[in-house]
Amino acid sequence: MTRRIELAVLPAEALAIDAGAYIVVDQLRATTNIATLLAAGMDEVLVVDDIERARSEAKQRGALLCGEVGGFPPPGFDRGNSPIEAEEAARQGGTAVLFTSNGTRALCSLAGRGPTFAGALVNAGAVSRAASGYDTVAVVCAGTGYGLRFSQDDFAAGAEIVRRLAERTGAEPGDAARLALSAIAGGPPAVEHLVRTSSHARGLAAAGFGPDIDYALRVDRWQVVPAVVACGEGWALLRPGRAHAAAG
Amino acid sequence: MTRRIELAVLPAEALAIDAGAYIVVDQLRATTNIATLLAAGMDEVLVVDDIERARSEAKQRGALLCGEVGGFPPPGFDRGNSPIEAEEAARQGGTAVLFTSNGTRALCSLAGRGPTFAGALVNAGAVSRAASGYDTVAVVCAGTGYGLRFSQDDFAAGAEIVRRLAERTGAEPGDAARLALSAIAGGPPAVEHLVRTSSHARGLAAAGFGPDIDYALRVDRWQVVPAVVACGEGWALLRPGRAHAAAG
Least C-beta-crowded within 10 Å: which of A38, B90, B107, B208? Predict the structure, then answer.
């Protein structure tokens, strides 16, 4: 049972936390997308942080190639980074290759330290349940700008995951987790407000991706727990993880 | 006039921000102490992150030696890290050497990038006024655990400095600055609550330093603007800076 919950405001902070499990949150849109791909039919998602590697891995595996540059699918990609597209495309099953910049780095650097999951509002309940079997849990904001800058949408979704975990376990929150709980004390409208007023959301809305933001706000749409099962420099492989849930 | 305000949640984030000026905040207690030392009579404060260097610099300069290990003054030190002691001791003038772990690193790494000031609640008005002449200002939370971990007391004091700067200039806040403004929307009681409920404050209170926390909450006690005038690996020299204030 979880006794301590930490919220890492940036991936760099997570490296200073000795946790039993890590939940990486890249709310708009990578971890929302990963959860959706795995919940809607994909067997696995390979996330990579290099576009050429994404192309070659997808070709080699006959995989669905998803991702974005500046919000839009690069030439030769099957899909962008939209969870709406992901839900439909995932029905074919198999492997998806996802090209992202922020989330991948965090997933890879943490997976070497302990069990690492991908979380977002769409699977907040499932991922907090799965993590509740670990003594110390770190919820990690993936951030923006290659994970170097704080992003309010990740903080908001991370706060909701912290809240579920704290309610379930009575665990003691660290400083940032306590701040997060107070930031969403107003309930679901407060969470939604923080997501919608983030720089990231405003940029996506201006680029025409408003429906993706709405989709990403569908709390608990999925019961999936994407878990890193293998990783290396610049890549991480995720599959739906249910084993750890039994520990909760 | 400031057009953009960023709050760096950790020193590492500040390195990714191209700002015209940086305000480092180590509310409990280093920047409160620096502001107090300079406002109450010291000509300069040399902050260093190595205890032996602190001892040798103080001896060589005939300086007042202040600092802490685990909250208490180490053997041979004249004073601890208490702003209450600092106010009294500063009357002698001259140089103070301050041994700290978190704030020094941030002050040194940023001073090479642009004008860098030390801020806290005790000089929130003065430091925000001085910074208002720069186009982009980054308020930097010094954090704890060698600056790797988020600390709620720094966030609270940083939020108050952001608020002053935003009110004065109408500058656009970045994500963390916006979150900070909403966290202290309740006014002074909200700022105080965030400081007092931080892990850092609770540790200090348990060690008998409750009066230092009260002192550090005396908003605008001083009009001083401590500015880094020289720095190197592991050290930074601060003097009362007034030149930049004229730019505002």
Answer: B208
